[in-house]
Specification:
Blueprint (H helix, E strand, L loop, with lengths): L9 E2 L6 E2 L24 H9 L4 H8 L6 H13 L17 E2 L5 E5 L7 H4 L7 H12 L20 E5 L12 H18 L5 E5 L1 H13 L16 E5 L5 E7 L4 H4 L6 H12 L2
Parallel strand pairs: 4-5, 4-6, 6-8
Antiparallel strand pairs: 1-2, 3-5, 7-8
Helix pairs in contact: 1-6, 5-9, 6-7
This protein binds iron/sulfur cluster.
Iron/sulfur cluster binds next to helix 3 and helix 6.
């Protein structure tokens, strides 16, 4: 990657406020859940401790958004944030983990894989600022979960209703491929997020096979009753699972909204709308 000289701060494309890249916690980025006093996890053990002691989703958002437990991913996300893509060279990059986004008491939990290097790693909001997000948020708007069809940047007015979106791995990985150790470290955040959302959740939508695996692994670790062997991933596959307090929840599979799937027609708008409508009816 070519290293270019950039100003130490650049203006946020919506608010016009100048920020360093990566963005220091509590410096005014729209929707930043953390501040300078938010505790930072620097090992898997610390992730486990900070996740387990988080009392609400806002605390999970804050703590995970400053996490530094995976050295390879911290290095990559910050390198991308400082070198930038040419098209975004005039923008500050978030350069931190992408926390969950959406309602604190969602009926639907959407689980994706990981932030995109120039998407959420730039904008600070999961699935925001890339083609995958364009597809997902347009579908959420068509099916009544979002107040607008686009999600271009934190601070753009987007609000979700009845849904929360999380990533199985919260830092942008090189080549979109997190290592197994990175997936297992970040799973502590995912598990705690699921636990805190469980009272309201009636459906979990897994985007892609890796999110499907991560979802079932998390549910099993949390003591949910899940089928064994675990059901194979497929678009539209719906699997009933049971929470520890004996409530039925549907886990639904969807092809990922990656360009590889949407450009080729493997995933169409109608297919994505169908799984979202199915999730709403559970
Ligand atoms: S991938 Fe997850 S556990 Fe690893 S540094 Fe990022 S937020 Fe922390």
């Amino acid at each position: 990657m070519t290293v270019r000289s950039v100003p130490s701060t650049l203006r946020h494309p919506i608010t016009g406020v100048p920020f360093a890249s990566p963005v220091p916690p509590g410096s005014g980025w729209p929707g930043d859940p953390a501040d300078a006093s938010t505790p930072v996890a620097r090992s898997e053990r610390q992730v486990a401790t900070l996740a387990a002691s988080a009392t609400d989703l806002h605390q999970i958002d804050a703590r995970s958004s400053v996490c530094e437990a995976c050295p390879r991913l911290v290095s990559w996300r910050e390198e991308v944030a400082t070198t930038k893509r040419r098209a975004f060279a005039d923008q500050p990059y978030w350069g931190r983990p992408a926390p969950g986004f959406g309602e604190e008491q969602p009926r639907l939990l959407i689980v994706g894989l990981a932030p995109a290097a120039h998407g959420a790693n730039r904008t600070g909001r999961i699935f925001t600022g890339d083609r995958s997000g364009d597809w997902l948020f347009a579908a959420l708007h068509r099916t009544g979960y979002a107040n607008q069809p686009t999600s271009v940047h934190a601070g753009d007015g987007l609000q979700l209703s009845g849904v929360r979106i999380v990533a199985a791995v919260r830092c942008a990985p090189p080549d979109n491929k997190p290592l197994p150790t990175e997936r297992s470290t970040c799973a502590h955040w995912l598990r705690r997020e699921i636990t805190l959302a469980t009272p309201s959740v009636t459906a979990v939508l897994a985007l892609g096979g890796i999110a499907w695996q991560a979802t079932f692994a998390a549910l099993a670790a949390l003591g949910w009753a899940v089928p064994r062997p675990r059901p194979a991933f497929g678009h539209g596959v719906q699997v009933p699972v049971v929470t520890p307090d004996q409530r039925r929840v549907a886990v639904i599979g969807s092809y990922h909204v990656s360009q590889q799937n949407t450009f080729t027609g493997r995933l169409t708008e109608a297919m994505l709308d169908d799984v979202l409508i199915t999730a709403r009816s559970t």
